[in-house]
Amino acid sequence: MRRFFVSIAAVVASAQVASAGPLVVWLEPQVPDTRAVRKAESNAGEATHLSHVDLAFPPNVPDASDDAAYDALRAAVIDGRASWDEWDIELKLAQDLYEALQEVTVVRNDRDLRDVVDAHLLAGAAVSRAFPPSEFSTLPAGEPFRLDAPGGPINRGWYTAMALDTGRTFARADIADGAPFDDFALVQRRAAEFPVGTIELDRVPDTAQVYVDGTFVGTGIAGIELPPGEHYFHVVRGGRVSGRQVVRVESGRSIATPMAVDDGELAAARSAFLEGSMGAFPEDVSTSLDAIQRTLRQGVFLAAVDDDGRVEIRPYRGAELVGKRLLTFMGTGEIGFGLVSSPLFDGANGETVGAPGVQGGLGIELGISHFALMGGMEAAFTPTETVTYGNKDQTENNSTAVLPQPWGGVGLYILRPNKPRPTLLLAGTYSHLSPGHAGLGGRVILGLPIDDDGTWFRVTAGGAHAGNVTKSWDGVFADRIPMDLLFFRLGFATRF
Question: CA triplet 138, 142, 148: central angle to 5 degrees?
Fold first, then answer.
């Protein structure tokens, strides 16, 4: 048990160290000189300093929302194939596929790439069926499904699939029921003649790993040539996926380094900040700041140096600052082992008997800032010992090894569950210890985040003590029958 509490202290200490220092994001091209940094730290404390490059390539680590986007995309493809032979379904099918594709913002691996390509292939087949070739280039309804290209508009789905996966050899079976394959082949022959485009990578940090369409293309490279069309771009910095974007490469032309915040947006944010208005930030700047704050899980200060050399620094009130979520509501479930000690057990003869067993339960927590109201239903199962007691009418005896334990309590959050980080809760409780005791107790609860959506793995240690029974009891020990409870449990908590 002593090792357990030492482990808890170590985990909490490391969590506090990881999030102890704030982030200072300078609305400048680079972090300024030492004098300005010291000035900022006199207000914010010792901090990590970021600048434009961190806004231009903010951390966007894959999370549950990306899994959900791909699940929805695969479902749209499955539904589309299942309904392929229905009457007049093609246009809606293509719309549904492109709606699902809009939620995909990163290609993480080969499976993701295949899912995206398959969706474009099916959308292209649906569009080929929905529009006569002679009218595809002119009908307003076809505009979302065609791309401008050398020689005239081209089927967006089919062409994008080819541009994303240049190493794939497409077969008739890849194109819905295979019937439109001849039309697909014409698009393929046209696409082979398009001049490539270039993404310039001169603004990407030299240490960043560059990925395009889920494939690693290099580190510290000047640029990369790609087929024209839509491509998925991100870099990996410090082990984190960052700066994810869907970029459009143009045939025979170069495009600048894809950045979430460009020089003009940085200048606009700096000007607004020095004028005292963070509400006038460009949307891309606010989005990048929120991504930094959400991923690095630290408080953020913004800073800039005005034209007279004075440092301005103020906290950024973004989406994930501690205290942003005043109320939290949690559901919990735990199971583990424990010890119930009492002279009440059958055959104890007045001696205190310790009964080990399984313990667990369900509960709720309502957090109000750093305070918590708690309650639930738990039970202890002591297979080696039983308790015999009279029923409600005192007409017969009941013997059981299952001891229900409804309880309630109040707690204090040392680390709150208002964002995805470790949590720590100290609580005092009042429990009914079946069959006839009630007493005070306490528990220490450590939560370790599983995801960014409000789910924690929980470790709980605690106990309770009841010095006497709460009702009359037949027996010579009726005035001195204590019951003590110790437990250690593992479980999960979900924030609603």
Answer: 70
